[in-house]
Amino acid sequence: MSQSSPGSPLPPASPDLPVLRVAVLGAGTVGTEVLRLIAQQGEDLAHRIGGRLEVIGVSVRDLTRDRGEHVPADLLTTDPAALVREADLVIEVMGGIEPARTLLLDAMAHGASVVTANKALLAQDGPTLYEAADTHGVDLYFEAAVAGAIPLVRPVRESLAGDRIQRVLGIVNGTTNYILDAMTRTGASFDEALADAQELGYAEADPTADVQGHDAAAKASILASLAFHSRVRLGDVHCEGITEVSAQDIAAAGRMGRTIKLLSIVERVRDETGERISARVYPALIPDSHPLSSVSEAYNAVFIEADAAGSLMFYGQGAGGAPTASAILGDLVSAARQRVRGGVGPRESRYAELEQIPLDDLRNAFYISLTVQDRPGVLAEIAGTLSGYGISISTIHQELIDQSEDGGEKSLAHIGISTHRALESAMTASLDVFSSTATVLSIDSVLRIEGE
Ligand code: NAP
Ligand code: HSE
After folding, report:
1. For position 186, what pLDDT does the model report?
2. Other Cβ atoms closer than 10 A to 31
3. Contact between residue 309 and residue 163 where contact means Cβ atoms under 8 Å apart
4. DSSP assignment, residue 41?
5. What is the SS3 assignment for 317?
6. Which residue CA neighbors atom 4 of ligand 2 most closely?
7. Given pLDDT bands bounded at 50, 70 and 90, which one contains residue 408?
């Protein structure tokens, strides 16, 4: 049996195999690993594809940086526009919207198939890329754009193409999972856990896209579009990040037997108006017994619920050079095989054109935490406001705030309330009342409860 490890005996692929010219845009964390895998597995890949991959150029900004043995200096170029016109296959791992968008459109117009890891671009302008692939009869693959090494795009758009997906729920951002996990394990604040994540290389110097939830929202828009055969753009995804999650929230969740995770949720919602879809990202409390609660460090995990398949769970490394490169190589082999044997890969499927349900119309369970005056009637007032909007309380936890060190009276309290499922609009209206009443000094947290 042939082995794929470097240096092992392998019958050489026929020298007459067709050659496929590969352009790589970017040689950073992911690009370098892509080039390593192509170099180390060249013979295996030739067998699997029925053609040889020849890297014809690697586009970067800085030509002087040493990028290791698998990124030969003579392949580097600062002219990606010229490079993509010479290629049969273009791998885009530069990131950002421009010039990536223009380069990919140009590559496809010149007949190249494209493999990209660029979730930001797909979430913002995926339809334009799909249309270009269609027009020019080439392929567009993007497994690496959602959850790194974890196969999710292919299962959703191919393996489950005959099923009816109801819901995809998961952790698709490793940085925020690392931070929330550290806060849960150590009691650290958000700022402390973020600094730790940056020091260990889990979080980038500018962590905005991760901690504000934008990265997870981009992935949610891609998953929703595929799962529900409808166009869901980044702006359609309700997005809340984890910057407001406090050590007190984590402790309160722990008291309730729950863990806080940043969840991406895309689902079908059926009500009297028919069927619509929801795509949203927010930190939520999930029961400690839920499988997602034990997903630690920077790992990702995703549940898919489909009518016939039932529940499926995917788990693994959602980021990092080698894991992400693995997903890219899988796409590269598919696109390359099609170049050799003919045919095209999956196209955009948007026939269902399902509408988005506004967040206000969703029903969710909540955990809210308030700082209130500690005097008779305050709890009754809060409960009265909630019940006036049809919100039923599930649990209440109260703690007096000890102001003795500040010379104050013990006259304030923290109240943590979890509710049964209620309309988002009802919770918003209740919070409006709380923010204008004298008895509530501050609304400290508002989090959803999921997975029950
Ligand atoms: P990175 O380390 O910052 O590398 C980006 C590379 O692209 C660098 O080599 C850079 O050149 C080059 N580049 C950037 N802008 C360019 C421009 N305008 N013209 C020419 N070259 C340019 O990024 P990465 O972490 O590898 O991520 C690449 C893509 O993969 C992004 O879309 C990201 O979202 C996606 N992704 C990353 C991961 C991950 O774990 N890192 C996981 C999944 C998906 P210089 O080196 O000269 O600066
Ligand atoms: N920044 C992302 C994460 C990896 O933390 O999961 C790229 O998708």
Report:
1. 97
2. 28
3. yes
4. T
5. strand
6. 319
7. low
Q: Is the CB of 374 under 6 A from ligand 2?
A: no
d(CA 188, CA 204): 19
CATH code for residues 157-317 = 3.30.360.10
Residue spans per domain, the chain: 19-148+323-341, 157-317, 359-449
240-278 burial, b if ≥16 CB within 10 A, otherwise e?
bbbbebebebbebbeebebbbbbbbbbbbbeeeeeebbb
Residue 153 in marked binding region: no
Q: How many CB atoms lie within 10 A of CB 313?
A: 11
Is 3.30.70.260 the CATH number for 359-449?
Answer: yes
Q: Find where tokens 């409960």 sit.
A: 383
Hey, whose CA ends up nearest to atom 2 of ligand 2? 173
> Would the pTM of this model clear 0.85, i.e. be above it?
yes
Tokens 């079908």 belong to residue: 268
CB of 28 within 6 A of ligand 1: the answer is yes
Give yes or no for a contact between 264 and 170, defined as CB atoms under 8 angstroms apart.
yes
Class of 19-148+323-341 in CATH: alpha beta
Q: For residue 329, which amino acid is it?
A: L
> CB count, 10 Å around CB of 360?
12
pLDDT tens-digit map of 99-114:
999 999 999 999 999 9
pLDDT for 136-173, tens place per residue?
Answer: 999 999 999 999 999 999 999 999 999 999 999 999 99
